[in-house]
């Protein structure tokens, strides 16, 4: 018991909050969320709002020299304006997914259970926002999950709210972030 | 015994440093002396660069009271190894512009360099890198620690970092339920 204590003599007395933050910016979102339960001090750092999120985003977009070309988020709405073809309102709950073309991986965060109207894309080269329509056949009332499937952007959506049946759509995204068309890859039956 | 050895090295060091001033001598908190290439020190550490430029380098050993000999040895080792490797363009630019330069993946030797360190040595080195303003070494060591943390449970993290759990059982359960999906493997 005593020996064990000696072995772990470092931190947190030695490790400043500043250093903990430096380390945390390298962690994947999932680890970070889990480590909120380590202690209240860590919870405070991780939940420190925009500052930590920006640091983390900067780090995760810059690390490994693989800058993502686009950030992708389900385009969700707070409300509809009547008569709009494409909605112009945005939910302020925007969860971005990072897309790195040469090593595709989408952070597996489950987005809010709001209805996505499309995918909101932030092009990091010119910081322009565009919207990618969801597959026509998907219907417009179902929540979807964004992921990566064999190097393609992939979207999983339930066929309706009352069944567990789902469809998996995929779209090619090239190194410049240019997108192809949605193609149905799999149908999962109830 | 070890201190004597350190002093012996220092004598050598001083002679070399006096002969041509390509090196600087650094003194750890426990009094050991280490020699490091002046060029590498200035390039890799903003603090040492400032001291060299400001003339506050002591030929008899510049005091670094916050850094123990083990950590300082690793710092010097890193500087010397770095001086022998050819820095890539990204590495140079990363010290110039924080906002635009991407972090370059650790090179093979950097990976090996941190892989061989114990937890304690790694934590000490992180602090030393921070104190000396060595951005690249800080990135490499922080990244290594984060790699080590990934996939660990909160319990394991508390053990490694010697952190006391200050949550009540109820508070913990609340977090766990709110973020159930985050508690599976990474």
TrEMBL record, chain A:
Gene3D superfamilies: 1.20.1280.50. InterPro entries: F-box-like_dom_sf, F-box_dom, SCF_F-box_component. Pfam families: F-box. Residues 15-55 form the F-box domain. SUPFAM superfamilies: F-box domain (SSF81383). This is F-box domain-containing protein. It comes from Digitaria exilis.
From TrEMBL, chain B:
SUPFAM superfamilies: POZ domain, Skp1 dimerisation domain-like. Pathway: Protein modification; protein ubiquitination. One of its GO terms (biological process) is jasmonic acid mediated signaling pathway. Residues 23-84 form the SKP1 component POZ domain. Signal peptide: none annotated. Keywords: Ubl conjugation pathway. Residues 136-182 form the SKP1 component dimerisation domain. It holds the Pfam family Skp1_POZ. The keyword Lipoprotein does not apply. Residues 1-21 are annotated as: Disordered. Part of a SCF (SKP1-cullin-F-box) protein ligase complex. Belongs to the SKP1 family. Involved in ubiquitination and subsequent proteasomal degradation of target proteins. Together with CUL1, RBX1 and a F-box protein, it forms a SCF E3 ubiquitin ligase complex. The functional specificity of this complex depends on the type of F-box protein. In the SCF complex, it serves as an adapter that links the F-box protein to CUL1. This is SKP1-like protein.
């Amino acid at each position: 018991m005593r020996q064990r204590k000696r072995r772990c003599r470092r931190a947190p007395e030695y490790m400043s909050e500043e250093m903990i933050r430096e380390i945390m910016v390298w962690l994947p979102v999932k680890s970070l969320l889990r480590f909120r339960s380590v202690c209240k001090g860590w919870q405070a750092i991780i939940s420190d709002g925009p500052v930590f999120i920006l640091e983390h985003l900067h780090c995760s977009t810059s690390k490994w020299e693989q800058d993502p070309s686009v950030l992708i988020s389900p385009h969700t709405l707070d409300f509809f304006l009547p008569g709009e073809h494409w909605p112009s309102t945005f939910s302020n709950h925007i969860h971005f997914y990072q897309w790195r073309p040469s090593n595709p991986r989408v952070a597996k965060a489950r987005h809010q259970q709001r209805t996505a109207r499309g995918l909101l894309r932030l092009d990091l080269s010119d910081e322009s926002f565009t919207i990618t329509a969801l597959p026509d056949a998907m219907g417009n009332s179902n929540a979807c999950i964004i992921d990566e499937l064999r190097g393609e952007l992939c979207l999983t959506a339930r066929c309706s709210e009352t069944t567990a049946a789902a469809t998996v759509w995929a779209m090619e995204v090239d190194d410049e972030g240019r997108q192809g068309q949605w193609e149905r890859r799999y149908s999962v039956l109830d | 015994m070890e201190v004597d050895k350190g002093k012996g090295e220092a004598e050598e060091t001083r002679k070399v440093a006096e002969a041509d001033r390509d090196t600087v001598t650094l003194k750890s908190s426990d009094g050991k002396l280490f020699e490091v290439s002046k060029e590498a020190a200035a390039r890799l550490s903003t603090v040492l660069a400032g001291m060299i430029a400001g003339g506050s380098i002591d030929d008899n050993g510049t005091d670094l009271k916050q850094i123990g000999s083990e950590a300082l040895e690793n710092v010097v080792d890193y500087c010397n190894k770095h001086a022998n490797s050819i820095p890539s363009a990204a590495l140079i630019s990363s010290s110039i512009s924080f906002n635009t330069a991407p972090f370059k993946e650790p090179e093979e030797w950097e990976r090996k360099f941190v892989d061989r360190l114990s937890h304690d040595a790694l934590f000490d080195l992180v602090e030393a890198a921070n104190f000396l303003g060595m951005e690249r070494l800080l990135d490499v060591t922080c990244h290594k620690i984060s790699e080590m943390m990934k996939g660990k449970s909160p319990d394991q993290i508390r053990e490694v970092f010697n952190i006391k759990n200050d949550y009540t059982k109820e508070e913990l359960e609340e977090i766990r339920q709110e973020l159930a999906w985050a508690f599976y493997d990474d």
